[in-house]
TrEMBL record:
(S)-malate binds at R158, N417, N461. The active site is at Y104 (proton donor), K176 (proton acceptor). It comes from Leucocoprinus leucothites. One of its GO terms (molecular function) is NAD binding. One of its GO terms (cellular component) is mitochondrion. Its cofactor is Mg(2+); Mn(2+). This is Malic enzyme.
Length: 560
């Protein structure tokens, strides 16, 4: 027994008391000795007489399926990951389409909302504003510094479309890294989920006695930047081989910190670049089908973005490559894109604009503000409507019908997450376009029967991109993540559809093939890194494509 200062709550105010306590477990057992624990053969008598691995997998699956609520499934799987990581990842790999929506979008959104209430064991690293000046010390507490290769870092300020969740954002970092492991075979012990606690502006959490984060509003921009500079410096000093994925920072900060660090460290922003790349990939496949139906060239597509936050503008920037790949200049590509924000069509004559919207702001419209989406569609005549607004149902039946009235095969991508914030459902998109829609959403929707055929929705979620991109960054030991590497990930994904998927009109490959796809993406990204000279693993340079792909596959970790 030791005497420790224990925090407790009274009337919403945190106080400390001296109390006897057993030595706290600093990390859960799985954080100390992940995976290896199950690799050791247990002594006779310490496990049931018959514990067949495949039967046990079925047992776990049955336990999972016996839970009614998705959040209960999430809690069950979190416990399984902690107790038996090999079995957890085996189940993930063998049941990708069933398990991904539980450990990731959309259920991870609920897990974040409820994190402080469902919390059981520590997982990941928490770095708070109170650690400013001493961040090195906190980072050095991570138990597997030498093995660390990939970290997902969030500050919880814009989790999915759910807003500022503060330290409750931790499950998003955990969920993304589970997909790195399942989807690209990154070794579990190489992953570092991080949640930065810089306060929260969500009063509900500040008032919640169970909230796990600091009881304070978010710090000023200046203080945050000082903190981030120190954090990034210490991360690169402690983990020289680490690649960092920024996740779910609020719009301005997402752009700001990507620009600030992208040429200095190996970082990328999943919401700007990952989402951009996955949408470009689906768009490439959709545009081919749409142009085949309309007889119009690929270069004539016109894209309307509903939502102009970090994800919207990030995707718009990435989709410029769609046009430049068709031979258009950058300026011509820019002019094929229109943005709509909360005040309607974004155009210069409207007045002051946020910095990140300026590039796509139109100079060819000077009329009155245009706020009605149907009116905007009639004005712009887009071939594609992309939603990144987190406004549920913003693509009303009338909006969808208007898109169908001007396009033989309209492209509709309601990309907001989680599912309940989607701009429209797949069922509505099918119904109001008479089955002609080319559809991808951020969260998963069920397939639809339409006039005797099964129609499949695409899931334009960055989960297709980041595992392969991260794997390439690790294997290539890249010094930074360049635009061409991100573009290569997108083209690698677009090219990965097999014959059956083409025949079914899919825009993205089946998620069950994620490892194969991640391998192909990683190969394309490593080649791009080599062309740009940001790769530091010289041994990969002499390999031909077949051998490079073989090596990538061999490097992937698989559950035993
Ligand atoms: O996490 C997801 O499903 C996709 C994503 O990055 C976001 O919506 O912020
Ligand atoms: Mg995100």
């Amino acid at each position: 027994m030791t005497i420790v200062l224990t925090p407790y709550w009274t009337n919403g105010v945190q106080k400390l008391k001296l109390a006897p306590q057993r030595m706290p477990l600093l990390f859960s057992p799985s954080q100390w000795i992940p995976i290896r624990r199950t690799a050791v053969k247990p002594k006779r008598g310490l496990v049931p007489p018959i514990l067949d691995e495949s039967v046990h997998a079925l047992r776990c699956l049955n336990q999972l399926r016996s839970k009614d609520k998705s959040i209960e499934k999430y809690i069950y799987l979190s416990a399984l990951k902690d107790q038996d990581p090999n079995m957890f990842y085996k189940l993930c790999l063998e049941n990708m389409s069933e398990i991904t929506p539980v450990i990731y979008t959309p259920t991870v959104g609920d897990a974040c909302l409820q994190y402080s209430h469902i919390y059981r064991r520590p997982e990941g690293l928490f770095v708070s504003i109170k650690d400013k000046g001493n961040i090195r010390e906190v980072i050095n507490n991570w138990p597997r510094i030498d093995e660390a290769r990939i970290s997902v870092v969030t500050d919880g300020s814009r989790i999915l479309g759910l807003g500022d969740l503060g330290v409750n954002g931790m499950p998003i970092s955990i969920g993304k890294l589970s997909l790195y492991i399942a989807g690209a075979g990154i070794r579990p012990q190489s992953t570092v989920p991080i949640c930065l606690d810089l306060g929260t502006n969500t009063q509900k959490y500040l008032d919640d006695p169970l909230y796990l984060g600091l009881r304070q509003k978010r710090v000023s921009d200046k203080e945050m930047t000082e903190f981030m500079d120190e954090f990034m410096h210490e991360m690169s000093a402690a983990f020289p081989k680490l690649m960092i994925q920024f996740e779910d920072f609020s719009t301005d900060n997402a752009f700001k910190y990507l620009e600030r660090y992208r040429n200095k460290y190996a970082v990328f922003n999943d919401d700007i670049q990952g989402t951009g790349a996955v949408v470009l990939s689906g768009f490439l496949n959709a545009a081919k089908l749409s142009s085949a139906a309309s007889g119009q060239p690929l270069s004539s597509h016109r894209i309307l973005f509903f939502g102009a936050g970090s994800a919207g503008v990030g995707v718009a920037q990435q989709l410029m490559s769609f046009f430049t790949l068709q031979g258009l200049s950058k300026e011509e590509a820019r002019r094929r894109i229109w943005l709509v924000d909360s005040q309607g069509l974004v155009y210069n004559a409207r007045g002051r604009l946020a910095e990140h919207k300026k590039y796509f702001s139109r100079d060819d419209y000077n009329g009155a503000p245009m706020t009605d989406l149907v009116e905007i569609i009639k004005h712009v005549q887009p071939t594609a409507l992309l939603g990144l607004s987190t406004i549920t149902g913003a693509f009303t039946p009338e909006v969808i019908q208007t898109m169908a009235s001007i396009n033989a095969r309209p492209i509709l991508f309601p990309l907001s997450n989680p599912i309940r914030l989607s701009e429209c459902s797949f069922a509505d998109a099918v119904q109001y376009t008479n089955g002609s829609v080319l559809f991808a959403s951020g969260s998963p929707f069920p397939e639809q029967q339409f006039r005797g055929t099964t129609l499949y929705p695409g899931q334009g979620n960055n989960m297709y991109i980041f595992p392969g991109l991260g794997l390439a960054a690790i294997l290539g030991r890249v010094s930074s993540v360049t635009d061409s590497m991100v573009e290569a990930s997108s083209l690698g994904l677009a090219d990965s559809l097999n014959d059956e998927e083409h025949a079914q009109g899919l825009l993205y490959p089946r998620i069950e093939r994620i490892r194969e796809i991640s391998g192909q993406i990683a190969k394309a990204v490593i080649r791009a890194a080599q062309r740009e000279g940001v790769d530091r693993n010289e041994s990969l340079r002499g390999l031909n494509d077949v051998d490079l792909l073989k090596l990538i596959r061999e490097k992937m970790w698989t559950p035993q």
